[in-house]
Amino acid sequence: MRICIEDVIKTLTSPDITIENTVDGLEFGKPEEQVKGIAVAFLATQDVIDEAVSFGANLIISHEGIFFSHRANLQGLQSNRVYRQKCRIIEENGLAIYRYHDHMHRYLPDAITAGLVQSLGWQACEAENLPAATILSIPEMALQDIILRVKERLGTQFIRYIGDLSMPCRRVGIFVGYRGHGELAIPLAEEKNLDLLIYGEGPEWETPEYVRDAVQQGKQKALIVLGHAESEVPGMRFLAERLQGKFPEVRVRFISQKHLFQIF
Asked: For the domain 107-225, what is the CATH superfamily, name and number?
């Protein structure tokens, strides 16, 4: 059976979801091209592209923007050697790249958040699914035990945190990607009576400083910062599994990446 890029895209979007000014779309390739293999990644970095070529994939599904900005702002990149070489490799190898971001975040529950909750083994603990966060009610655990659980289940070498390691936690808020910013996370921490916030990233002078002040005041608050990619990779991994189930005749591979930063 001949599977085209357009066939894959149709499984990724819902006619019930309309998004104006979306970043989702086919950035390289043509809808009518036959799919020989699919590579799924948090971000189509140079190493992901190289591995996709080696794997024999000609379609890459990338959650984040591949040219160093959310909205593909290419102004000023036309003469950039890194940008030009990346484009050349994509085109020379006949790769198609589909950006799949907004639709994943518009489902309820959010598909990326659902992937993280599933990876942490807390699906049965979901108390409330909001558009931008999932609230969990977990069996009481010390912050230290939660950190160890997160590291083990996500395969993360290190975790940034704020709080007392012995503090008991029951009410947990999960915020993927950039949703750790103060305008979102701080009001929900108060409104939902959260003991612990787990998020991808956000400005360090916003939510982390709120948690630091709360701890200094003797309040039961804690924060775990995973990193943007670390919080969203599980959702893309589960997407790869779902696509393999829908298209068993096509090879689908999730391509993982090392942590962006090194610790000296």
From this structure: NIF3 (NGG1p interacting factor 3)-like (3.40.1390.30)
